[in-house]
Give the backbone structure.
Amino acid sequence: MKGKNISPLMPLSAWVIFIFIFCPELHPQAIKCFFCNREINGTYIVVDGNYYHPEHFLCKKCGKQIKGSYQKLLDDYYHLDCYEKETAAKCDVCNQIITGEMITQDLKFYHPECYRKFIVPKCSVCLEPLEGEYKIDVYGNKFHSWHIGVLDQCETCGRIISKSLTNGGRYYDDGRHICNLCYEKAVFSQSEIRDLLAKVIDKLIEMGISLDKNNISVHAVDKNELKSISGMEKFDRLEGFCKSQYLSDFVKNKKKNIKFTHKIYVLTGLPSLNIEAILAHELTHAWAAENTPDNQPPDVREGSCNFISYQYLFYSTDPEVKFLLLNMEKNPDPVYGLGFQKIRNKFYGKPVSALLDYLKTGN
Ligand SMILES: [Zn+2]
Ligand SMILES: [Zn+2]
Ligand SMILES: [Zn+2]
Ligand SMILES: [Zn+2]
Ligand SMILES: [Zn+2]
Ligand SMILES: [Zn+2]
């Protein structure tokens, strides 16, 4: 994107021509001034075969008489310095002539300072010009690479938490640092989260995933509670967990009438769209607990849950949804990210039932 420097002067398109002043004795017949069309009695000049009163041979740019040498451009005449001004490159920002160093970009010219101040893209975080290497996040924000690691990234959306980009952020009691864009849409109340659960279950059923509302409950918890409930103390990115249990009667030493209950735990204080995505993932675990063998490899299981969540999100009209999808696609985690890519490559564009059959039977 960076422009390159070139010389400020345009190539001269006309030669410098000197004026010759003639005396009337040399020209006995009546001659007329090309400018005022009146007869010339005193001295006159001839330019390109036309006669002029000397005071009527005028510069196109400044309108004053040309006495010394001149430059011609098309059918117009100029003082030498007026010609230079007329043809010099002008800065597209300040409209002043550029002498000295110049930047060109997309057929426009700039003073280096004007270019730096007004044309170079600005860092979304510190608002300074982005020169050299910079990064772009999934939201399209451009920023200096060195802000990463110096400033926190929002645990939910990944944006760099800063005044200009996210209007700051806040810490939750469990240590999470959340940007204010996410915080504005955060859901904390149990009843709202229960409503989201009902909404997601309805949609998944519509997609062909059999679930029973009556044996699924949802509980909003903070990060520390989620870690201890799931037993995944070390997994810092955990946002939800599904605890499935069953009761069964034994008939002739065989399990019969198996009744499942699923408790879904989800982080409190997330935007509703994120909560829906997590619920879709965990509900797929609930379905899998009832319908698939226990011994599935983790990347197949988590990748499938993420893929159903991804499919669910396609129905959302929330403007943030495309970024959530992008974050899923770009997740480098070997289980959640690469597992998801594997399942997506296999089942993208196919009916959901194809994936469900694959999970039930392994083919
Ligand atoms: Zn005249
Ligand atoms: Zn002039
Ligand atoms: Zn300028
Ligand atoms: Zn910056
Ligand atoms: Zn955020
Ligand atoms: Zn999972």
In short: The pocket of zinc ion (ligand 1) is lined by residues 33, 35-36, 38, 53, 56 (CB under 6 Å). The chain has a mean pLDDT of 89. The first strand starts at residue 4 and ends at 5. Residues 135-184 form one domain.
